[in-house]
Amino acid sequence: MGAPKITLYTNHRCPWAHRAHIALKELGFEFEEVIIDLATPRTAEYLAVNPRGLVPSLRYNDEIITESAIVAQFLADANPSHLLKRSDEEGGALQRARINFFVDAFLSKVNSLQFKVYGTQGEEKEVAGQAIVDAVVKELEPLLKDAAPFFGGASKLTLAEVLTGSFVLRLLAFPKYDLLPASVLTGLESKAPAFWKWANAVVKEESVNYIWDEEKVVEGTQARLAKLAAAK
Q: Where are the alpha helices (DSSP H) in the chain?
C-alpha cells in the first residue's frame, strides 16, 4: 500500500491549523498545501470542502477530515508511530488518556487565560499574567515531571506536543512584544521548571517551528487587538 495522497487546507498563522503541520512533518508525509485566506469570505470551492469554512481541513485520499484535534488524531491513528501508542498496545489506553487530560488542561486552564490579559495595562496586566503562571504551576507542572524531554518520558514528540506546540510558541513569544507581561517568562522559569524545560524543547523542534513566522503572527495579533479596542 502506497503513501496516502494528502491535501492540507491551512493558514500558517492559525494555531489550530498549525497542529496538522506538526503531525504531518513528524510522520514524514509529503502533501499538497492550499492556503486559505482567513481575512476574506471563504470561496464556494472551499465551502464545498468544509462548509464551516474553518482550517485545517485534510483531504486524505478521497476522504475529508476537519477540526484540528480530529485531524491530528486521525493521522496518528492511521499511521502508527512515535506520536501515539495504539489503544490495544501495552500502556496505549493509559497514554491516550493522559495525553487527552494534559491537552485539555493546557487549553482550558492555561491558554484560555491569555485572553484575559489582552487589552489590560499596568497592575491589572501583571495580575492577569501571574494567573497564567499560577495555572501552569497547578495544572501542568505535575504532569511534566517525567518529561524527557517530551510528554510521558518520550524522547520524541508525542500527540501531546502536536496538539499544544503552536500555543507554546505563542506563550513564549508574546511576552517579548508586550502582548503578555514579561513576568510570565520569568515566572515560568522560576516556578515551573519542568514546564519551562519541556516548552523550550518543544519550540526547538523543526516540525513545530518550520512554518512559524513570529513577526507576522505578532503583527496579526496586534492588529486584531487594536481593531477590537477601536470597536469598544
A: 15-27, 44-49, 68-78, 92-105, 114-117, 122-135, 159-173, 183-191, 193-203, 206-209, 214-231
CA distance 26 to 39: 29
Contacts of 122 (CB under 8 A, 6+ apart): none
- The HSE-up count of residue 32 (CA atoms within 13 Å, CB side) is 8
Long-range contacts from 29-33, C-beta under 8 angstroms, 24+ separation: 29/3, 29/4, 29/79, 30/3, 30/6, 31/6, 31/7, 32/6, 32/7, 32/8, 33/7, 33/8
pLDDT digit string (tens) for the chain, length 232 residues: 678 999 999 999 999 999 999 999 999 999 999 999 999 999 999 999 999 999 999 999 999 999 999 999 999 999 999 999 999 999 999 999 999 999 999 999 999 999 999 989 999 999 999 999 999 999 999 999 999 999 999 999 999 999 999 999 999 999 999 999 999 999 999 999 999 999 999 999 999 999 999 999 999 999 999 988 888 7
The CA distance from 231 to 106, in Å, is 30
pTM assigned to the model: 0.96
Q: Give me the sheet containing 6-10, strands edge to edge.
A: 32-35, 6-10, 57-60, 63-66
Q: How far apart are CA 228 and CA 231, in angstroms?
A: 5
